[in-house]
Design brief:
It comes from Natronorubrum tibetense GA33. This is acetate--CoA ligase (ADP-forming). InterPro entries: Acyl-CoA_Synth/Transferase, ATP_grasp_subdomain_1, CoA-bd, Ligase_CoA_dom, NAD(P)-bd_dom_sf, Succ_CoA_lig_flav_dom, Succinyl-CoA_synth-like. There is one protein chain. With about 700 residues, this protein is an alpha/beta fold. It has 4 domains: about 5-285, Rossmann fold; about 290-450, 3-Layer(aba) Sandwich (Rossmann fold); about 500-575, Dna Ligase, domain 1 (2-Layer Sandwich), CATH 3.30.1490.20; about 580-700, D-amino Acid Aminotransferase, Chain A, domain 1 (2-Layer Sandwich), CATH 3.30.470. Helix content is about 40%, strand content about 20%. The protein contains 26 helices and 30 strands. It has a 7-stranded mixed beta sheet with strand order 9-8-11-10-12-13-14, with helices on both faces. A hairpin with a 2-residue loop joins β3 (about 50) and β4 (about 55). α7 (about 220-230) runs parallel beside α10. The longest helix has 19 residues, at about 435-450.
Length: about 700
């Protein structure tokens, strides 16, 4: 166990604010502890000699040594109570009391004071505004919930105390047990990352599950979860899906990569399996806590009912798994042992009169096939089939082959006894075949998480000082935005840009165009005009003789479109051959929880229409950058679809990594778009740039980061 071991395995627990008043939280917690806790229970109340027949003390300092203090005093007394606990040497505290940051500015001030006291005395504090904590091995129910959890190997955290009470009521009925349970509350000191680390070191925790509304430090959470999921699966329900963050963004990347995309990317990179519902959360957890990992993705289905067999097949098709293709030897063995009317191909239909022996033979043969990584036994109740005997057979065959098997013994009361037997041996039973398949899918996903390798981000040789000087231009602007006039920022980080210059008079435009071989591209440059092509602010293929007039026309169009727009000039740029290239976008949006969020996808004018993009949390290495390129639907265009010459995708991968380094080096970059990044056979070129800079953060950016 880790540094929080005493939090879950205390020898003594004090209830500060204990009372015998009916309906009081202090009484409920004291009763829960008194009834089942293996250790010493110590009531604390300044005016009582005893509470519920237990000797009471005025404060923690005057009580015997306390390992855990559960605080249920009024909000204005919490801070002094924590000081008292700290002075007495109590390291672990659960603050049940509400009235902190969730209530407004006064409560937020009180929460900051709580955090300061916890830091001063090095206290492990759960809450405030918490239901409490549980640990079943020692019978500790330090909550005001109505019942304790059953003992098991799943550890569970939740930001909602009400969610815990509802889940435990349901889980107890389903006979699903837990190791530890934590109501996170306001997470003033201890948060989800702390408990992920703790349970990752706990050999008695097989699966970590949780309900979260937010993650406080996404970068730290990813690091911790990656380490833990080498051995222990993490399954989370993340609520609060919203587009509000995207609506507030000003760049393409910000609009597409909103808060929900950040959580999707962050949790995926962390190795977390995300459930979309409470049902999925426990369907996944039940499989992960009791079954071995499948060697591969082939699933065998054994059933006595055609319809449910088809439903199971459909569910496999909807998952990342696949229906196993049986070998000729398997088909021959099934043909020999099954009735003539049976289907010996996958799914195996042993037909309606199948008894336990026939089910056992079919399952045994299927699990022996080298193409089968897992199996689902699907059965409808019949007069010739005893579910309790079938359960015993499934357990036997699963153990013989050491292959994950789940069951779908359809029915009500008839299946209950068999379900209990299966549960005892770690085999989950589901009424719905789709849920059975989802459990196997979770096993395969965790196997892939354990097997994946994540390379370290590469550090490129770049010119940070030059980049800082360019970013500091934002401090001299009325707003904090920079555009194509700052393309040399990309050049400072080794990202290729076309030859060209931004000019503020037509004669200079002609000089620059003359220095560039061939026709040029000309674009209006204004931080106030985002969609230049919509107003005719871009001219492609301008000959030298037409440059002067093109300049005047672009400026006139911009002033007619937006008279108050700041016109910085016109960009005269080398014409890039787009016939053999693909327009992509690389960008960054800084998420409040996870930090810099990298985006790659199909670019140009279609980026917000098609939204064909992939997302990662920076910093990333080459493997993650390459995966970003491979994930988009337009990836075949880059690989050379329909006779096109393939783009230099390795240069795209390097560009994503260089951008990752740029935004990691400079946290002041809030949003950034390179659109388009033209990817062709001979490399890449960044054609346009937009970014937003936090000028206050810029002052503290570490340009010496190595």
């Amino acid at each position: 166990m880790g540094r929080l071991s005493a939090l879950f395995d205390p020898q003594s627990v004090a209830v500060v604010g204990a009372t015998d008043r009916e309906g009081a939280v202090g009484r409920a917690i004291l009763e829960n502890l008194r009834d089942e806790f293996d250790g010493e229970v110590v009531p604390i109340h300044p005016t009582r000699d005893e509470v519920l027949g237990i000797e009471c003390y005025a404060d923690v300092s005057s009580a015997p040594p306390i390992d855990l203090a559960v605080v249920v005093v009024p909000p204005d007394a919490v801070i002094e109570t924590l000081r008292d606990a700290g002075e007495a040497g109590t390291e672990n505290v659960v603050v049940i009391t509400a009235g902190f940051a969730e209530t407004g500015s006064e409560g937020a001030t009180r929460e900051r004071e709580l955090r300061a006291v916890a830091d001063e005395y090095d206290l492990n504090v759960v809450g405030p505004n918490s239901l409490g904590i549980m640990s079943t091995p020692n019978g500790m129910n330090a909550t005001f919930g109505p019942e304790n959890a059953l003992e098991g190997s799943i550890s569970f955290m939740s930001q909602s105390g009400a969610f815990i009470t509802a889940v435990l009521d349901w889980a107890n009925e389903q006979e699903i047990g837990f190791q530890d349970v934590v109501s996170l509350g306001n997470k003033a000191v201890l948060d989800e990352t702390d408990f992920v680390r703790e349970w990752g070191e706990d050999p008695e925790t097989d699966v970590i599950i949780g309900y979260l509304e937010g993650i406080d430090d996404g970068d730290e959470f990813i690091d911790a979860a990656r380490e833990v999921t080498d051995n222990t699966p993490i399954v989370l329900v993340k609520s609060g899906r919203t587009d509000a963050g995207a609506q507030a963004a000003s760049s393409h990347t910000g609009a597409i990569a909103g808060s929900e995309r950040a959580y999707e990317a962050g949790l995926e990179q962390a190795g977390v399996i995300r459930a979309n519902s409470v049902q999925e959360l426990f369907d996944y957890a039940r499989a992960l806590s009791g079954l071995p990992e499948p060697d591969h993705d082939g699933v065998a289905v054994v059933t006595n009912a055609g319809g449910p067999g088809v439903l199971t097949t459909d569910a496999v098709g909807d998952s990342r798994l696949e229906m196993a293709t049986f070998t000729d030897e398997t088909i021959a063995a099934l043909t020999e042992r099954m009735p003539e009317e049976a289907n010996v191909y996958n799914p195996i239909d042993a037909i309606g009169d199948a008894d336990v022996e026939r089910f056992g033979e079919a399952l045994d043969i299927a699990l022996g096939d080298p193409n089968v990584g897992s199996a689902v036994v699907v059965s409808a109740p019949t007069a010739v089939l005893q579910y309790d005997k079938l359960a015993e057979t499934v357990i036997e065959k699963r153990e013989d082959h050491d292959t994950p098997v789940v069951t779908c013994l359809m029915g009500g009361e008839r299946a209950r006894a068999a379900e209990e037997v299966l549960r005892e041996f770690g085999i989950p039973n589901y009424f719905d075949p789709a849920r059975a398949v989802s459990g196997l899918d979770a096993l395969a996903r965790f196997r892939d998480i354990r097997e994946r390798t994540i390379d370290d981000p590469q550090r490129f040789d770049v010119d940070r000082e030059r980049a800082r000087e360019i970013l500091e231009r934002a401090t001299r602007r009325d707003d904090n935005r920079l555009g194509v006039e700052s393309m040399d920022l990309l050049e400072a980080y080794g990202i290729p840009i076309p030859a060209g210059e931004i000019v503020d008079d037509p004669e200079r435009a002609r000089e620059i165009a003359a220095s560039i071989e061939g026709d040029v591209v000309m674009k209006i440059v204004s931080p106030d005009i985002s969609h230049k092509s919509d107003i005719g602010g871009v001219k492609v293929g301008v000959a030298n003789d037409d440059v002067y007039d093109a300049y005047e026309d672009l400026v006139a169009r911009a002033r007619n479109y937006q008279p108050d727009a700041a016109i910085l000039g016109v960009q005269v740029q080398e014409l890039v051959d787009l016939d053999t290239a693909t327009e992509t976008i690389v960008g960054v949006n800084r998420d409040p929880q996870f930090g810099p969020l990298l985006l790659f996808g199909l670019g140009g004018i279609f980026v917000e229409i098609l939204e064909d993009t992939s997302v990662r949390v920076a910093p990333i290495g080459a493997d993650e950058a390459r995966a970003m390129v491979d994930e988009i639907q337009a990836a075949p265009l880059l690989r050379g679809a329909r006779g096109r010459e393939p783009a230099d995708t390795e240069q795209v991968v390097e560009t994503i990594q260089r951008l990752s380094q740029l935004v990691t080096d400079f946290p002041s970059i809030l949003e950034l778009d390179v659109n388009p990044l033209v990817a062709g056979p001979n490399g890449v070129q960044a054609i346009d740039l937009r970014l937003t800079v936090d000028t206050e953060t810029l002052e503290t950016d570490d340009t010496e980061k190595a």
